[in-house]
Design a protein that fits this description.
Number of strands: 0
Distance between the termini: 84 Å
Helix content: 55-70%
Order of helices and strands: HHHHHH
Radius of gyration: 19 Å
Largest sheet: none
Shape: globular
């Protein structure tokens, strides 16, 4: 008896963007839609700065490389003259994103506002 050559599941190519697990987990750590929108903006900014294609790709970066990327991002923000509180908000968004995706071996102290203050 010959098996059917017909696929079991119809192949439908959707024009919708695929849902990224890392972003779903991140969103579940947030309550208000306003915070979700703001944090998505910060996360997208970091992703573009780091030349990463997707949020799921972002969590697959080597931890040491990710630490360097975060440091360069914060230094860039500081060099652009952004306030420490604004940078701190971006760091909070990134910290939550990585924590919700079980990336916890990062040195956030180096990225804290106290570390960023200009020394006299």
């Amino acid at each position: 008896m010959a098996l059917s050559q017909r696929p079991l599941v119809k192949n439908t190519k959707s024009t919708k963007k695929s849902i990224q697990r890392s972003l779903v987990l991140f969103d579940n750590g947030l309550k208000s839609q306003k915070t979700i929108d703001t944090y998505h903006g910060y996360l997208t900014e970091f992703k573009k700065f780091s030349w990463i294609n997707s949020y799921d790709d972002l969590i697959n970066v080597d931890k040491e490389e990710l630490q360097r990327m975060l440091e360069y991002f914060v230094i860039d923000q500081k060099n652009r003259g952004l306030s420490l509180s604004y940078i701190s908000g971006k760091i909070s968004a990134l910290k939550l994103f990585f924590a919700m995706n079980d990336i916890v071996a990062l040195n956030w102290i180096k990225l804290s506002p106290c570390y960023l203050k200009k020394r006299n």
